[in-house]
Structure formats: C-alpha cells, structure tokens
Amino acid sequence: MRDRSSPGRPREFDDTEALRKIMTLFWKQGFEGVSLSQIMAATGLQKASLYAAFGDKRSMYLKALEQYHAETVTGAARALKDPGVLATDRIRAFLTAPIAAAENQDRSGCFLCNASADQAGLDVQTEAQVQRGFTALASALETPLAELNHALSRADLETRAHMLLGLYSGFRIMARSGVDVGKLRPGVEVALQAVR
Amino acid sequence: MRDRSSPGRPREFDDTEALRKIMTLFWKQGFEGVSLSQIMAATGLQKASLYAAFGDKRSMYLKALEQYHAETVTGAARALKDPGVLATDRIRAFLTAPIAAAENQDRSGCFLCNASADQAGLDVQTEAQVQRGFTALASALETPLAELNHALSRADLETRAHMLLGLYSGFRIMARSGVDVGKLRPGVEVALQAVR
DNA sequence: TGCATTACAGACCGATTGGTCAAGAATAGA
DNA sequence: TCTATTCTTGACCAATCGGTCTGTAATGCA
User: Fold this and answer.
1) Which A residues in the span 76-135 are in contact with B, Cβ-Cβ below 8 Å?
2) How far apart are CA B11 and CA B14, in angstroms?
3) pLDDT truncated to tens, each residue of chain B (196 aa)?
4) Can you tell me the distance from the alpha carbon of B175 to that of B172, in angstroms, rounded to the nearest whole number?
5) Which CATH superfamily, name and number, covers A15-195?
6) What is the ipTM of this complex?
7) Nearest nucleotide, C1' to the C-alpha of A5?
8) What predicted TM-score, i.e. pTM, was given to this entire model?
9) How far apart are the CA of B8 and the nearest CA of chain A, in angstroms?
10) Residues in contact with strand D, defined as Cβ under 7 Å from any of its atoms
11) Chain A positions in Cβ-Cβ contact with residue B170 (cut-off 8 Å)
12) CA(A48)–C1'(D21) in Å?
C-alpha cells in the first residue's frame, strides 16, 4: 500500500493480512452487520490506523471485495481453466464446493453471492464489483464446457456457463440457511449431464 | 392480531398492511440495513405502536418473513402444483420469474434468498424460517416434476427439485447484482431438458 | 543531531441506534 | 356517566454508530 522506504514512521501491520480479517467479517455478517468496533477487535488496529490505510467503512468493504476477487474468484477461475484436470471434474469440483464447505461446518458461503444479496442493489460500486466477479466465473466456466462438447456454439457455451453459475450461487445461498446439503449433491450430476 | 371487540381504544391501522410495508423494507435492505426510523416513515406509525403490535426489531423481521411465507412462498408453491397448467409451463414460470422481475426493473429478488444470505447464519429463528420456505418450494417442485416423468423415483424427484430450487435461488441472487438477465433465460430451457 | 514525515494510541465528536415511558385519547362494558 | 383497558403521541434514554483530532512515537534524510 505504501513504499517500503518512504519517510516517516513505518506501518506496524501487514495491510493484506488486516484486509483479509476485514473481509472475513463483511463476508459473514454483511456490510451493515459489521461495526468499526468489530473491525478494530478483529484486526487489533485503532480506528485512525484503519482509516489511514483503507479509508472509510464503505471503502473497506469495497477493498475487501477486491481482495476476494483477487484471491478466491481468480483462484476458482484458474481451477476451472486448468488443463491438467478433466473438464467434467473441474465443473464438478466447482459445483461441489458449496456442498463440501457446508459439510465442513463452513456456513460463510460465497462473499460475491452474499454481497450481491446484501449491497449490490444499494451501492453502485459494489454492484460493479459483484458483476465483475460473476462475469469472471461465467467466462471461466466456458472453458471446460467447450472441452466437454466441441459442438457447442459460443451462445450455447454462454447459456450453459450462466446456468451453472446460477446453480452454484443458489447452492451457496441455500447452504447458508443450513438446509441438508446432502440433498444438493446428486443435483450436480444431473446438471453435468445437462451440459454435456 | 387482536379481537375486534376487545376493551380499550381500537387500533387505528391495519396490522397486515403495516407488516407488508415492513416486509418490503427488510426484503430490499436486509435486517441491519433497516432502521426503526425508516420503519416509522414507511408505516406512518410511532415506535410505541410498532413495538406494541409486532415486538422488537428482530420480531418484526421474523413476522415479515412469516408474511412472505404465507403470501409469496405459499402462492408460488400453489402455482407449481396447479393441475390446470402444463407441468413444463409451471416449472418454466417458476424459473423465469427472477428474470421477468429483473427485466421489469424489480431488483428486490427473493426475500427468502436474501434472508438466507443476510441473517440465516446469524439467527436461529430466521434460519428455521428460511429452511421452512426452501423446503416448501422444493416439495412443491416435485409435483410438476413427477408429471413430467412418471418413471422418476422419490429420490430422483427430490434431487431434481433441489437442483431447480438452487437454480432459482441463484438466478434471484445474480439478478440482484444487475447482471444482464437475458443471458439467464436460455438456461431455463437447458434445465427443463435436464429434468424431463 | 535536528527536521520533515508518517503512524500510533485513545480521547473526543455529533448523530443515530434500538428501545422505553408518561400522559392523554378513544373505546367497551357496567 | 364512570371505570377499566388499550392505543397514540412524542419526549426521553443509554449505548453505539461512523468518523475526526490531538499529542506523541518512530522512522529517513540532511
């Protein structure tokens, strides 16, 4: 965030590490559900330090969303494009992730999906960031889909990618409510059959 | 909420009407995103009247969710079971609703889905209510699915119902972010093919 | 050793939060 | 008409909200 050897007292904390903790809070509790006091407690930083490093609360939220994009979304997109794994397995892994997470008692879901429900309709910058994430995932899904069926047109690929992304998002949302995610698992295979 | 001819000064507002306005607020802005002042402004009621009629803020939220269940969820479930309409068309209408709403500039999405992302992980009563809604929809989806393919076992029906519900929820969430919902529409037909 | 610059700790700010209370008004039944 | 009961209004409450400011500590450079 700042040059290493700039004048003045050096920062005593790691920006990325702090931002990751902030991200976790917003991820689980939403924008309005997180207070500055909670952010202070989670990061161990004072208000002034937080404001100097990340700006106001809204700015922290957007930076957290960016962080999620840079790490999680990009990571998922990379995995979907990985030529070292069978196309079917890549899509299956993507669709199964929400189920596996819930089975591991992780109910945080997907920050992108949560942000979409929580803030996308209320803040244009959040809206743009969420759209960017969804677009990245949809585009990444086209890669294994194309490998699965070479005959598909670009439009067909886009259709199927958006359908799978919808399914993924829905699973993430349903998992948040604690429904028996075991009932979602066989649906993954039905979806895979449909896009083959 | 109260007997018509009970002693004391009669209520000057309609409980259900007020609750509907409260529901709209929570639906669009989430639990923490709504303040008592906003509820007062939307309903035209004083705080004390609101508290007397619906209890505290959390209780208002839960009653709003109940209202949504009683009206919207139950209505959707009934439509899915309606023997007067072709099974395919019923499912299509269900899956298309998120798209049609977004195309009509309605970005509120589905209260159930929003509540799942927003509060289900934080409040057990909300969690239970959300699960109840999802279960009702999944169960209703089995009716047209069974008509579509008589050979499907109970387990197969459940699988497909949950898959379609996942797709529906995902579409609702994606629509909230303002993505081009036109790209979701052809996916409905792919999904219909898959469950036939 | 100074000086400019930046970061830290925590006091401090007005505004708003969810929630309560007291007083008066409206009703039903006696 | 009186009384018991309930509702409405608006003042009131402590707590918390997001955000700022001040004084001091730590650094690089001259």
Assistant:
1) 107-109, 113-114, 116-118, 120-122, 127, 130-131, 134-135
2) 8
3) 455 567 888 999 999 999 999 999 999 999 999 999 999 999 999 999 999 999 999 999 999 999 999 999 999 999 999 999 999 999 999 999 999 999 999 999 999 999 999 999 999 999 999 999 999 999 999 999 999 999 999 999 999 999 999 999 999 999 999 999 999 999 999 999 999 9
4) 5
5) Tetracycline Repressor, domain 2 (1.10.357.10)
6) 0.95
7) D28
8) 0.96
9) 39
10) A 5, 7-10, 34-38, 47-48, 51, 56-58; B 2, 6-13, 45-49, 52-53
11) 113, 165-173
12) 10
CA distance A39 to chain B (A): 16
Residues in chain B: 196
Q: Tokens 């994430």: give the residue.
A: A133
Q: Provide DSSP, chain A.
A: ---TT-SSPPPSS-HHHHHHHHHHHHHHH-STT--HHHHHHHHT--HHHHHHHH-SHHHHHHHHHHHHIIIIIHHHHHHHH-TTS-HHHHHHHHHHHHHHHHHTT-----HHHHHHHHTTTT-HHHHHHHHHHHHHHHHHHHHHHHHH-TT--HHHHHHHHHHHHHHHHHHHHHHHTT--GGGTHHHHHHHHHHH-
Do the Cβ atoms of A140 and A122 come closer than 8 Å?
Answer: no
Q: Do A171 and B166 touch (CB under 8 A)?
A: yes
